[in-house]
Amino acid sequence: MNKDSLIYLAGHTGMVGSALMEELVLQGFTNILTVPFEKLDLRNQRETNDFIQQHKPEYVFLIAGKVGGIQANIQYPAEFLYDNLSISANVIHASHLAGVKKLLFLGSSCIYPRLCPQPMKEEYLLTGSLEPTNEAYAIGKIAGLKLCQYYNQQYNRNFIAAIPPNLYGEGDNFDPSGSHVVSALIRKIHAAKIQNMPQVEMWGTGKARREFLYVKDLVKGLVFLMQHYNQNQAINIGSGNDVSILELAEIVKKVVRFSGTFQWDASKPDGMPQKLMDSGLIHKLGWHAKTTLESGLENTYNWYLSKL
Question: Are the C-beta atoms of 147 and 162 separated by less than 8 Å?
Fold first, then answer.
């Protein structure tokens, strides 16, 4: 990408999209195309195709999609599959028709099998059953990833796919109905602190292990991949470290300065037992996450406080 290349950022208002917009500007890119959902519904094939044909971007970051935590995924599986499937198919196909030079599709580590060998390597995709609690979302993301590969194979496109772990950071969704684990923990533990509650009830056993990546590290990696990666194989982009949900809760407790205890409700689902990705490929290319989990959580909590 040149600094004046026309770059379409699909999904610029969410946590990842807004951080990516900021990173592109910081790196000196001056020709970034965005459009709000109210003016362009990427689930609509005709609208999406007309928009991309009109503007003919050279590069596309496909970040847009419907996201949420375990509760939202269980409650709205049809929307999670339909929205993500539609957005992926429409933007990727329209980009192909418009002759986009390169597209980066953002996947998710939940596309790996539920009982995937750890750490999860890119070639483990589609080797086993998915985690039932987020299967619909995962299928939508897998379809987008495979579409990129098939357009490359059939039409010699340069559409790449990046697979991040659990993400967190400034701009995260703290709404109880749609939040992920980090934002849900911050909101819940902060509320307990303010209300002087002695105990906080937590979902699951706390034993499930997750890898977390700070959003500002992620977006640096996405720009890096757009500049340096051109393979048809999807690529993991992670920190290389995981923690149990119990350990995560204890770090959030420290960051929030909450003095109470946790009560774990084992009747609630844990999700996949472990999700740790093998990010050896991107590390060999020269990209590494820089932010420690505690430091990233401090930044996220301070941002959350600023929005109250």
Answer: no
